[in-house]
């Protein structure tokens, strides 16, 4: 039976019949190398061409330079494109994290938190993150963390230690450990902790690896993310669409799981794949 998602992708057409939510995106220039078309308008234009309904993003400014001003940049983008962009508040343990948590508590435009232990050189298990874990567990707030296999700051084993102490945290393992070895280490973490999710963006990710992750933890525990515009969203989306997933698994990974995680209604366009008409 013809796969309409794969056919649309090969024809360069937006995906239809399935709700697509990108849970790992960024905004703005990056200091170490050039990232083209990194402003909100250019990103939304790409999303219209891919068929991605919403991108949940954090600004590079917030991650690299100043969390407070960068988080304001994220909110401006969300205000400009409220139906297309949602924001993560970056919490940097070295930059008054309690201030960003207070801001988060009064700011409904933030739908989650982004942390980057490797870039900030501070372990997820450090004391400065404890108020965040307590807040996120109490509020049911999703947290996206960078993960990197063998890192002293956010290796999957470090993630596991956080979840042992705070089992209620809805934690997204960004990049799923990055490398195949990191993915193998991330799988048992997600199996052990029912509020944890794997996310599939990264330079090492492939369609077969996406399919393997789904087989290992179940389609309900895997989320589509792209690292867009750091990595082209079209390429990241193609890995998932071309992974050979069943109709139900594709629906879950591409957006169904994210909609439930963030408490959003599913798109009215989610019809073809959700009803199982697309694939065997």
Automatic annotation (TrEMBL):
UniProtKB keywords: Hydrolase, Lyase
Classification via InterPro entries: ACMSD, Amidohydro-rel, Metal_Hydrolase
Signal sequence region: none
GO molecular function terms listed in the Swiss-Prot or TrEMBL record: hydrolase activity
Domain of life, per lineage: Bacteria
PANTHER family: 2-AMINO-3-CARBOXYLMUCONATE-6-SEMIALDEHYDE DECARBOXYLASE, ISO-OROTATE DECARBOXYLASE (EUROFUNG)
The protein's name: 4-hydroxyphenyl-beta-ketoacyl-CoA hydrolase
Taxonomic classification: Bacteria, Bacillati, Actinomycetota, Actinomycetes, Mycobacteriales
């Amino acid at each position: 039976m013809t796969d309409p998602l794969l056919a649309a992708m090969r024809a360069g057409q937006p995906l239809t019949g399935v709700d697509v939510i990108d849970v790992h995106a960024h905004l703005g220039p990056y200091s170490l190398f050039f990232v083209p078309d990194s402003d909100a308008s250019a990103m939304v234009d790409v999303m219209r061409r891919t068929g991605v309904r919403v991108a949940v993003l954090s600004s590079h400014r917030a991650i690299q330079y100043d969390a407070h001003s960068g988080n304001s940049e994220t909110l401006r983008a969300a205000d400009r494109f409220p139906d297309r962009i949602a924001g993560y508040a970056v919490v940097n343990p070295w930059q008054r994290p309690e201030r960003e948590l207070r801001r988060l508590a009064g700011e409904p435009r933030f739908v989650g938190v982004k942390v980057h232990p490797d870039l900030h050189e501070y372990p997820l298990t450090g004391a400065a993150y404890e108020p965040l874990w307590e807040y996120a567990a109490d509020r049911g707030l999703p947290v996206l963390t960078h993960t990197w296999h063998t890192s002293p700051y956010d290796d999957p084993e470090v993630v596991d230690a956080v979840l042992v102490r705070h089992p209620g945290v809805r934690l997204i393992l960004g990049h799923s450990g990055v490398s195949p070895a990191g993915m193998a280490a991330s799988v048992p973490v997600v199996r052990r902790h029912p509020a944890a999710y794997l996310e599939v963006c990264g330079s090492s990710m492939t369609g077969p690896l996406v399919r393997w992750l789904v087989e290992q933890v179940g389609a309900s525990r895997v989320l589509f993310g792209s690292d867009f515009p750091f990595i082209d969203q079209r390429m990241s989306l193609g890995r998932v669409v071309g992974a050979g997933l069943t109709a139900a698994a594709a629906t879950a990974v591409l957006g169904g799981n994210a909609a439930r995680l963030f408490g959003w209604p599913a798109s009215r366009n989610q019809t073809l794949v959700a009803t199982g008409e697309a694939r065997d």
